[in-house]
Amino acid sequence: MALINKIRERSGVAVVVIAIALILFIVGGDLFGGNGKSGLFSSNDNKIGEIAGTSIDYQAFQAKLDVARANYEQQAGRALQEQEIQQLRSQVWEQMIFDITYKAEFEKLGLKVTPDELREMVQGTKNLSPIIKQQFTDPQTGQYDRNRHIEFINAAAANQLPAQQKAAWDQIKEQAIQQRLLEKYNALLSASSFVTTAEAKREYDAQANKADARYLYVPYTSIIDTTIKVTDSQLSDYLSKHKEEFKGYDSRSFDYVVYQVMPTKEDSAALYEDIKSFAKGLAAAKDAKAYAALNSDSRVPYERSANELTPTLKAALATAIQGAVIGPFKEDNTYSIYKYEGTTTDSLYSARASHILIRADKTAPDSVKAAARAKAQDILNQLNQGADFATLARANSQDGSAQQGGDLGTFKNNGTMVKPFESAVFAMSGAGLVPNVVETDFGYHVIKVTEGKTNTKYKIATISRELQASESTRNAIYQKAETLRASCSSKEEFEAAVKKDGKLVILKADKIFPEASTFNTIQNAREVVLWAFNDDTKVGKVSDRVFEVGDNFIIAAVTAKTEKDSPKADDFKDAITAKVRNEIKAEQILKKLGNPSGSLEQVAQKYGAGALVETASNINLATGMLTSPGIDPVAVGKIFSLQTGKRSKPFVGENGVFVVETTKLTKAPEIADYTQYKNQVMQRNGGYGVSYMANQAIRDNANIKDNRAKFF
After folding, report:
1. Angstrom distance (rounded) from CA 389 to CA 638
2. Closest CA to 645 of 217, 208, 214
3. Bridge partners of 626?
4. I need a surface site. Which of 131, 298, 530, 580 has the fewest CB within 10 A?
5. DSSP readout, 568-591?
6. Angstrom distance (rounded) from CA 663 to CA 683
7. pLDDT tens digits, one per residue of 268-288
């Protein structure tokens, strides 16, 4: 272990720590606030979050997570992986939000599921819950099994289910009830949302009223960004005036270095010696297959067809005698040796082929089929004249194998491929182009057999050993990392120490969120994120340990943080800087324009470089698009606010400064029926939009505080 040296160095301290721990155990937990009592060191550190004023402690959350995990693992028949556990934590948290916030809303509105309704949801046929139905649906066929469902319901009614299965069933029913209540709630919201005739008329006018205009446009981009200096005080002032536009968020930024654990020349030499030793053992073994299985890092089939062998091994077998040990051969980081023990005959043939598919569904018109066949025949003609198969496949084949040059790999004559295709391949006596285009239900195939059919199987005992860093190598690399880490107490010292080491590079992880488990290319790095979000980890602090993440040792130093409850201008620096910079540009442009007179062309000429004069025709308020400015609601709104023939004073738009002249206004004709426009507004604002807004309102009112990142 990489920590062995550290443990030895601190063994004297450990004796004292153990002695103190025993004394504290004898004194008891009351001193420290155990069992919920107020003690000397009791704190709020166990609080995982807060929902609508309800405090959620770690034990309560973990208990729910344990139940959910047990149910999931029972249904899946396996243990959960770390990524799945993270997803389950999020599901449990969302469920707690639902339980605390939504249920209160349901009760206020009198929403409930009656016993008769629940019975129909759980075992009925007319209104069976999709959640319940899913439990009795075969995942392979997608077919719902009514008989199995009724059998289960009867067992549950007779109290014949095992305790764990009963608990899982109760939870599933609860989920079905919650889903039904949520459906009722959303239906109620949708029914309460309506569009007035006035709203529909406004929508109609926005689409049907048209305007023509000419305008002078000076874009912000006409002034170079680097000529505008934005101060920190300007950023802070802007944020204080536009707080509603910028929502705070929790994040951490940190610099880090990576010590990658790589095998050394000594590790490679040691593995080579091991391989030679295994070669002797394999040669002498009476049961080579068992010996190989016992000593190999990975298992491969003992019997393999020629199509399943690597080119190097296949070439070696061509001259090998039975009983010979072949190798070692290196492939990537794996060394392999083989003992050849003869051949056997398979009942099936195998072959390898590539194809070029020109699609034409069997239901396609004859003209489509004829065109596809002609194209396939043309490709076959090119191949017969010497064209490269893989190149034509990448350019023409209409299935996923195109990226591999049409290669389909090895397959057997057992129905893996559609019948016409399989018959064409295995009718070939060796490798080469199938002489004719082959038609299947998918279309027309041009086929090249790359390895001819064979039913010969080679009996080969294989030992594969992967080259990995030894424990001594890992410990040596860890010690380098620990030495650097221990020499730094601040970010500045960390940067200086890394700079002295010419082999290290400081990498940056910017604005990493609390729930993250990865940053940049580093995967499964949850431990680093947890450290960064720990209350004791301040900006400028270097990690208190070397993190071991896969084959990497990582040292980090926090460089910045953002807090949800106290947003700062620096948290949104790029966005606010752009806003403030444009405000300064707008002031400069307005000042230079002054109170312009004359034609727009004369004003543009007087202004100089950057000023444009353009014309817009048939624009509307709903989707108004100007030529160079693009979508600029301020400018479009100004055009419609002017009377025909009138000109505006210079004003600031979204994308620059404008002077506009409205040359024509075409009012929409009156209509009697606004139903179409009511529906458009409803689709935009109603339905799921209402549900979404209600959900956001509920969550905002709940004032949710999520501290899970400090625990998991």
Report:
1. 62
2. 214
3. 630
4. 298
5. -GGGGHHHHHHHHHHHHHHHHHHH
6. 34
7. 889 988 998 999 999 999 999
